[in-house]
Amino acid sequence: MGRKPFNREIAIAGVAESDLGHGVSLSILQHQALAAKRALEDAGLRHTDVDAVMAVDFLGLPSLQIAEYLGIKPRFTDTTVTGGSAFENLVEHAALGIAAGLCEVVLITYGSTLWSDRRRVVEGGGVDPRMPAAQFETPYGDLSPIGAYALAAARHCYEFGTTPEQLAEVAVSTRNWAALNPRALHRDPITVEDVLQSPLIASPLHRLDCCVVTDGGGAVVVTSAERARDLRKPPVYVLGSAFSSTHLSISQMENLTQTGAFESGKSAMSMAGVKPSDIDVVEIYDSFTISVVCALEDLGFCPKGEGGRFVEGGRLGPGGELPTNTSGGGLSYNHPGAFGIFLIIEAVRQLRGECAARQAPGAELALVHGIGGWLSSHATLILGK
Fold first, then answer.
1. What is the enclosing helix (H) or strand (E) of 55?
2. Rounded distance, CA 169 to CA 150, Å?
3. Is residue 5 part of a domain?
4. Residue 222 gets which letter from DSSP?
5. Domain for residue 60, yes or no?
6. How many other C-beta atoms lie within 10 A of the C-beta of residue 132?
7. Which positions ≥6 away from 307 have C-beta within 8 Å?
8. Same domain, 219 and 321
9. In this structure, is residue 130 part of a structural domain?
């Protein structure tokens, strides 16, 4: 059964981050509240305009907590947890809620103190009781999630001849974007050799193939296009969206080189009536360099198995043919445990033309792709001016 497009009836009206980085000295709720305050100001709205709250912090009753903290009494809420893809999912759910008349202004928030807590899922290690399937992988020494992504990377290298040097190209391009972002955690330039000389964490992934760890929060305001036209910033329209999940545990992934991005990307682009060659800027959850290579293939930017060659020569970086992860991404800019909301924030700013030195030229159409778990969940948004 075909899905009808949103027809530019839904818009993102406001985006913002909290204070980001190391030693920020804010609680999880304070990160969310600060980001929410800034996103509402960005949109030209007040907290009293919000009638729906969606939040992810993986514990407790997050949407009710942040609504109470902000003095909001929502009539619609959602706390869908699919890992780092949750926020792209929530934008879709917000759009559906608005289209159905269940709400008008949706506030989506996230906050984390991952760096400050230096926490593990279970104190002292062990298997998280909330994820019993992990008991079948932990005894084999899986350093989750790095080991899971390294498994996929190793298979990609074996099957398609992808090299560590090609994976490193992703990290280098992303760092070049970060150098143009004053808020990025790491801004010093790196080379392919720097990536290969950084400590090997889980073969073939080196330290610089892996995302950073920070504190931080983000917020996104979604509303009707009609409401957005009278607000402070130009609306960014939700043109297409889709979700796909193929597994939870990495041991249950049927094909380590084929991800759910194939289905979510195809469906989202079909809904929006666009194809990969129409996209001006791409924001992909880069928890690891292999995540970007696999996603680019499965989203249709290059054939399966050619992702390594595709990312060579700075194609993803400033001045390249396909501006990708223009904030500096999870590899260099910021990563407080779940990066998906920051992909949306950056895409909106790119489409508004607000990114100064890192602005992608002629950005009219953006693809945002969130990844959750162990390459487990995939959610794709197509956003347009």
1. strand 52-56
2. 16
3. no
4. E
5. yes
6. 9
7. 156, 160, 162, 166, 292, 293, 294, 296, 297
8. no
9. no
**From CA 363, how far away is CA 368, in angstroms rounded?**
13
Residue 26 CB coordination number (10 Å) = 19
Rg (CA), the chain: 19
Spell out the residues 6+ positions from residue 155 whose beta carbon is closer than 8 angstroms to its own.
256, 257
Residue entry with tokens 């996929």? 152
The residues facing 91 across adjacent strands are none
Q: Strand, helix or coil at 83? A: coil
- How would DSSP label each residue in 313-382? GGTTSTTSSS-BSTT-IIIII--SS--HHHHHHHHHHHHHT--GGGPPTT--EEEEEEEETTTTEEEEEE
3-state secondary structure at position 63: helix
Closest CA to 223 of 87, 47, 104, 67: 104
User: For residue 23, what are the domain limits?
Assistant: 10-119+215-239
Tokens of residue 64, six digits: 């009710």
Enter the tokens of residue 367.
């693809």
Q: Per-residue pLDDT tens for 55-77? A: 987 567 999 999 999 999 999 99
Contact 77, 54 (CB under 8 A): yes
> pLDDT (tens digit, 9 = 90+) per residue, 13-51?
999 999 999 989 999 999 999 999 999 999 999 999 999
Judge whether 151 lies within some domain: yes
Whole-prediction pTM = 0.96
Residue among 325, 269, 343, 255 nearest 300 (CA): 269
> Of 341, 369, 353, 379, which is closest to residue 17 (Cα–Cα)?
341
Enter the tokens of residue 152: 């996929």
- What amino acid positions are annotated as catalytic residues? 285, 333
Query: Residue 78 forms beta bridges with which residues?
Result: 54
